[in-house]
Design goal:
heterodimer, A: 79 residues, alpha+beta, two-stranded antiparallel sheet, B: 1076 residues, alpha/beta, Alpha-Beta Plaits, Rossmann fold, 4 domains, seven-stranded mixed beta sheet, six-stranded mixed β-barrel, 37 helices, 43 strands, 18% strand, globular
Chain lengths: 79, 1076
Amino acid sequence: MIMKNGLSSTNYNKDILSSEKIGRKKFFLLTGIAALGTAVLSAIPFGRKVVAGSTKQESIKISPNPHAVKRNNRQENNG
Amino acid sequence: MPSNETTDRKIMDKKVIDISGEIVNPDNLKEESRENNNTDPNYWRSFRELHNDPEFMKLKAREFADGALDKPDLNDMSRFSRRKFLALLSASAAVAATGCSNYRNQGLLVPYNKKPEEISVGLPTYYASTCNGCEYACGVLIKTIEGRPIKVDGNPDHPVSKGKICAIGQASVMNLYDPERLKNPVERPDKINSNEIQWGVADEKIISQLKAAASSGKEIAIISNTINSPTLKKALDDFKTVYPTAKVYSFELFDESTRRSAWEKSYGNQNLPIVQLDKAKVILALESDFLGNEGNKIENSMMYVKNRDAYKGEFNRLYSVEGNATITGMNADYRIVLRTDAIEEFVYALMIEIIGREKISGFSTDSTAMSRLQKHDMTNFIAKYGISKTAVDHLISDLKKNQGASYVLAGSALPESTHIAVNLLNEALGNNALHSKDQSRISLVPLSPKSEWEALISSMKGGRVGAVIHLDSNPAFVLPSDYRYTEALKGVPLVISLSEQINESTAVSNFVLPINSMFESWGDYQTRNTFLSLQQPVIAPLYDTRQKEEIILAWNSGSKDSYNKDIYRNYLQANWRTTVLAAQNTDMLFNTAWNAGLNDGVVRVTTTSSAGTADVPATQQVFKPEAFVATSTLMTAGSNFVLLLTQNGNLGDGRFANNGWLQELPKPLSRVVWDNYAAISVQSAKALGLESSDLVKITSSAGALEIPVFIQPGVAEGVIAVQLGYGRSECGIVGKDVGFNANSLVSKGAKLSPWLYDNVTVEKLGGMHEIVSTVEHYNIEEPLLKDIQFRRHIIQEGTYLQYKADPDFLRKKHGDNEYESINKQYEHTGTKWGMAIDLNKCIGCGECVIACNVENNIPIVGKDQVQKNREMQWMRIDRYYSGTPEDPKTSFQPMLCQHCDFAPCENVCPVAATTHSADGINGMAYNRCVGTRYCSNNCPYKVRRFNYYNFRDRFRDSIQQEESFSLMANPEVTVRSRGVMEKCTFCLQRIMEERAHAIKDNRQVIGSNVKTACQESCVTSAIVFGDSNAKESELHKLIHSDLSYTVLDEIKVKPNITYIAKLRNVYETENTEAKH
């Protein structure tokens, strides 16, 4: 067992990606890949729509009926 | 017992020790309290509470029910370590940050680029319209915010409903936004697969097939529910002109056919009168749930409570004779439990007493009539059925004393012979004086009788029907199953369904055409001879739908290109130009009159004739005694069960099964949700060895059904009652397969009536179906010992005689409520909001609960969550029984946040999320709440509701997260998320609206201007809200009245909700249990 800086380096030579614990190297490696991937996706237009639900149907439009006659309050009437 | 104990009683090891130190058996307490001459009733809500079930007592003592606080199983948890999770979380956050664009630069956000003229941003707009949830067509006011309808209330200008609507009308806004509404026309050539189709193509195909059917002499059947629109009738008449073989059939699941046929035999016409119950001093309801599910319950309830006001000195007396347990019976002053098939015998026995012995009318000399009555005797009847002689004697005495001011109502389910007998009884008593002389019902298109349906079915099977059009109706589900309607449809080449939602009829149609909801439709309605009501669309159709009348007009034109979006509006106006407004004989310009009509929602007409059946004024209706003499059958009680099929006030005939609010509204007596059941008596259940939720098989002459039972106190022995409208097989995901379809028990050829069957057998099956009832939820803590010295007085009642003798009797009985508290009294010198609930007027219908749900964005949680006490309704109607399970008295009490001045929930919140405002509101800051639930634990009234989940995300595949559902939300009320406590806020948003108006008008806030949602919806006006400091207000008078009390006042929390004690109008001076 090689001691380095007082820490055990038993796992030092093991495959980084297969270890249970996320080491600092693995963390930054993954983060870097993710950042690169995001940058690629936002830069290159794949025509992908991400808004949930909008692929199913058009958004519902609310438009009041212009011929409807409103009251300003509950009690208003013509007697 | 230790001598230094100062408590009244002590409970040790499940034994109970009385104040005197004696060990007492809890099960004997009822007898003991009677022996000690204690007259306070013993209130109980369920059988487990009545029998002091140890498990139930444990449940009561605990805040949360079993399963509510289930801890997660650690073995099922992910093996993902916390460190790994946090590391990935931070990595994801970093990725998200790099991926985010500059969100600040979205441009200027404005509500509108071009604001529609009729919208004021942030202010609600009201539109008068008409509800078409049932045949009574109540007037409504639709509240919209920025064009979105969000609330429906009654139209105060409507002469019948007078500003009130039922739960179906209240919840109708959910039907508009239901994501499962039909959105596009669909063709189903093989009636199995569906292909979307354009309207023009659908019209073209249908028109050509209709023309072919008409030209080949084949019938075109149009099947509809009650048609009460004069203009729709005209459109159908035009249709019949274009397609001469067309015929219109109309039906209802509960169509009062026996009542109408009895009236025809008795009076020669089918013009049922309008009974002025508000003028009746005595009402006898024979299996008639006129306050619940029968007739126009809005009008009935309003008329009934008009004479239930102790302060005005007007108090009618209601007798109920019934086999089923209904809210009418449970609100009655005297209730006689009698099996339904014995009711006709009872009427005969009553008649011999009143007409025969007392000779109060001319019929006493009619020998043929009297000969039918002679063999009946009330004394023998009482002995035979074991009913209360006292109650019967009072009934006979009251009817005799109040001739012309009383009324006998026979339930719709009773057979024709019973109705004829009741007609004679009313006639003999002169009760026809209560028939309205200036108002009559209008029947534009009479409902089709059995003979017409049989002829249609025969024609369909014989291939003589070329097309069937379901005009917003569902005959495949509703018509009695022995018509075999769905099978007969196979012989029809063209079946078209015009519907808002999928149903059993659309499932067997070739074309399914989606129609507009009532919020998107023009219309007119006439139910009485003195007015018409208008319906106007408040929004353009949300989807590619059309109004059913527009579809008919397009077919009338014979061309697919004739449709335009104003086609029906123009047709409606043209009709009114020549009929309604022409008849007004006014010099107003048509447009002014038309707009006035739309503004009011109602147009009064002066004509007394209807376009439909010939009216015979009430004063000219003459009873034919030969109708009674000719009645050959007499319904008599058998030894087997009698089956009663009843209407469901929430779901109608099943058309609202997909409305989650209505499904989750507890039934008034059983408090069951999301199911129907067979209500059975305590005695019958014992005889069959049944418990609630056990499955039984009910077999009648009509068919058989397997359904769970529910032991319902107050049901007569030998009676089994089932509600219809459940068990929809073709429905949206909310209502599909909820409950049991009891329509298989409805027969067209029933001997008694389509809703009443004798000689029924009930057989216990092996399994069970869990029925969920909210009756034991949110128990207000009571002492284990229901003993004589210390009661919680949650329900305080008396009799009208007691009150008249001594208005202060309640204070003397229960002591006054002087508060002594260690809390410093805060003087509310300004507005102080409070509420009074008059228990004399509250009939327990539950309309207020639905109104609160709609106003405050209450989520639907589903049956499984209700089972865990997690229903989210802010209001509940507590239902207490007193007396015996076989013949209980019932007390209803709406319970909601009491907004206590010394609220125990406020002190214990660790983050001050619940605080008390200067005007007396106990408020909730949802974004402060961290979900400790300490407040709920401390609330003595159990009125707080916790969001264990984001129920919108959880119920039925997140249907409440669909875009259309979010449009339904009231924008003035926060939508709460998971982990947050919520409760009644006294409709703070409405208080804020009044404050804004007060500031704008430079005046003080006026308490009476604010109406809470529950108050506005309460049909009987039992709820009064306002400023308790305003001395002239109705609320102030109620709070300081003789009958006022607060619940749990002994714990000194000073609630701001005052209850007015219920008075029963009985002859006995003490409110004792009926003795048999």
